[in-house]
Write a structure and sequence with these properties.
Layout lengths: L3 H44 L4 H17 L32 H26 L1
Helix pairs in contact: 1-2
């Protein structure tokens, strides 16, 4: 029967192994990102849309951002990832029920602005 020391040692080895594996995976992903961004930068340089110095900075910035960025882990109380926030689109025919008049006024103003923008867009398309 293994003793407590053996179990602790195996747990430490498991942790070190997982950390090493995660580091290798992250390193390979960064290498992959660097290669892809270098291809993109080379293509932009070839087209004349970017100088070689800008391309070099672009690749460095992409890799630096990837290293600094931590993937957002949003967890709810039951340890499941939260689903994306739902957005409800209200058509012009539907009534919006707001709890107080101040919110209704804001919605009406936004609708009026959207209608004005749509009218302006239609007018520009005709011209």
């Amino acid at each position: 029967m293994p003793g407590f020391g053996d179990i602790l040692q195996k747990a430490v080895y498991l942790g070190v192994g997982l950390a090493s594996y995660a580091g290798e995976k992250a390193g390979s992903k960064l290498t992959e990102l660097r290669a892809e961004s270098q291809k993109l930068a080379d293509e932009l340089v070839k087209r004349g849309e970017m100088s070689t110095e800008e391309a070099r900075r672009f690749v460095e910035d992409m890799v630096q951002q990837a290293q600094q960025q931590q993937p957002p882990v949003e967890v709810t109380g039951d340890k499941k990832p939260a689903e994306p926030r739902r957005i409800e689109i209200v058509s012009e025919e539907e009534e919006v029920s707001a709890p107080d008049a101040k919110e209704t006024g804001g919605v009406d103003k936004l609708r009026e602005q959207v209608q004005n923008l749509q009218d302006e867009l239609r007018k520009l398309k005709r011209d």
